[in-house]
Amino acid sequence: MPSELDLHYPPDSCPFCNIASAFPSPSFQSRSRASTSSSSSRVESLIDCVPSDAASNHEKTTPSSFIILASQDVIAFLDILPMTRGHVLVATRNHRVKVEDMRGEEGREMGFWLPVLARVVSRVSGSTDYNIVQNNGARAAQVVPHVHFHIIPRPETMPQIKNKSWTMFGRGQRDDLDDEEGASLAAEMRRVLREELQKMESAPKL
């Protein structure tokens, strides 16, 4: 049962739900390929979840959203108040307030995409170190009550860290993401994500 602190953002005005609506998942026909035995068909189905540049117009939502992934149960996009360059949010497509509210298939899909997106963030940001942070509830610093994971690159040098409130929980000094920079960065992440997925076709089976 959600507490009063969890109800400060009605689902019908949830910004993450707006992003999910603006960037739908692939068609059923495309997704159905994932259930076939062909490795190439599965990879093609996964790549279908990466929106094309033409379909990724950041002006589809207000404020702008810079989409990277739009799968059946998971969406990923740039944080518009990034802590570092390449700060990505990975959220459930459906409105789930806390991790405990996620369904089994959502958890499985999230578990698949998180390591893949972590590799993408690491490659594009050039940072081999990163945090994956997930908050549940207002007292745990969850600002938007919709399940999401932060992938936050940790570059080698961060000037005057000790003098700033720069924490792993999403608070501190954060600047708005410029639209032009956001569009360019998201496009690069989509390109690298497609490359990472393509590698799976030739990867050895476990």
From TrEMBL:
Residues 54-166 form the HIT domain. A motif (Histidine triad motif) lies at residues 146-150. SUPFAM superfamilies: HIT-like. GO terms for molecular function: catalytic activity. The active site is at residue 148. It comes from the Eukaryota. InterPro entries: Histidine_triad_CS (IPR019808), Histidine_triad_HIT (IPR001310), HIT-like (IPR011146), HIT-like_sf (IPR036265). GO terms for biological process: nucleotide metabolic process. This is HIT-like protein. It comes from Westerdykella ornata.
